[in-house]
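Got a spare moment? Tell me how you read both lines of this record:
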Amino acid sequence: MLSLLLANTAGDERERLRQSRLPRSTYHAARRRAYAEGWLKDRYLPSPALFGFPQVSVTMIRPFADRGAELAERWAREPGHVFGWVGSQMALGVFFHRSDKERSAAEVRAMEPTLGSGGLLFHPRPEEGGFPVYFDFEGLWAHLTGSDGTRAYPRGLPPLPPEVDPEDPARWNPRRNWAARELLVRPFAAEAQGRPGHLIGPFGLPFAQKHLLSQGWVVHRVLADPSRVPPYAGHSMDRVVLVTGTLRPGISPESMFVTLTRECRVFPFLYLVDSGRVLLGALGQSPGAGEPSSPAETDRRPVLPTLRLALEGILVVEEAAGNLRTSADHRYDRMQPEQKRP
């Protein structure tokens, strides 16, 4: 059920019910619970360049033990900060910017050396395939539940829609501007109004908002919260693991990703590339959490030796998902379309 919701490929609720192969009452009860318990959340992601945010920074730093709360607060105040986890072993932040100048100033503030050590900065270019997987949890959950393949994984940041010039000021007329703003703020307005999470999806939206979704200016995504998703058959993915390294000569990011998913059976929820450097995020089980659930699990290719063949200068950090403080919870309402003055 969660795999189906995370894939989010159904055109309407009736089609999703058909895909689930569950009785109607069971399907609706399970869906309501998944949102009520905080396992899932809906977000509307804009195409960054189209919305005037062509620059992205991803930061990774180890907070000082006494400065984690301050780091989270500092990041939360950044206008372009859309996502952040801050724990004791690592902090991960995603920031979008309108210009190189804005990016440089924001990075200085985000990487303040008095707040942590070992800081790393990545500048993936979404329009050049630098962000092939962006908080896509479908592959992980499908693997955990033994599903036969995935429906939509992997999905990255929304690309620039074809035949759209991001520099054309005429692309934003008042109706499109209104529709985009309403979509981006929709999850947070609904939360403030006390509307249940399972009612924030795209079904029943006004035509102008549906048009933006159909054209790819904005995409609707169902995201998971690793600290809240329940175990399945005794197995839980309750640890966030971040891996960084530089690709070895002759190794492409595409080939490494294929090896990880097909042979290692690892499905990163985050995968980005920046000039030969790679950052991937995955979920793992706590030590002693359980035995492999199937013979296929015992036969899979070992992960760390595979990474050593593909990367050099490998750094691995991990943290229990429940220990991570959220500085921004996919706040894409901060990426409002820029209003051009005549």
